[in-house]
Design a protein that fits this description.
71 residues, 31% helix, binds dioxo(di-mu-sulfide)dimolybdenum, Heavy metal-associated domain-containing protein, HMA_dom, alpha+beta
Length: 71
């Protein structure tokens, strides 16, 4: 069943950045939805299978952002 998790994301300075983060995350296999909150510096993901958190972080870091799992 779908599960949700939240990432803290830093390096987003405008709505375009937030849109990029959303596109990067929803482009990953197993990520059904990503809701990015620019002001809160977070992304809430809905995943339909186990997506390795390090892979998510790597995708964002490769695009110039930083991320970590919010525990
Ligand atoms: Mo707007 Mo965010 O040009 O990099 S997309 S600052």
């Amino acid at each position: 069943s779908p599960r949700q998790l939240m990432l803290d994301v830093s390096g987003m300075t405008c709505g375009g950045c937030a849109a990029s983060v959303q596109r990067l995350l929803t482009g990953m296999d197993g990520v059904a939805d990503a809701s990015v909150d620019l002001a809160a510096k977070s992304a809430t993901l809905t995943v339909t299978k186990d997506v390795p958190v390090p892979d998510m972080i790597a995708v964002l870091e490769n695009a110039g952002f930083s991320a970590q799992l919010r525990e």
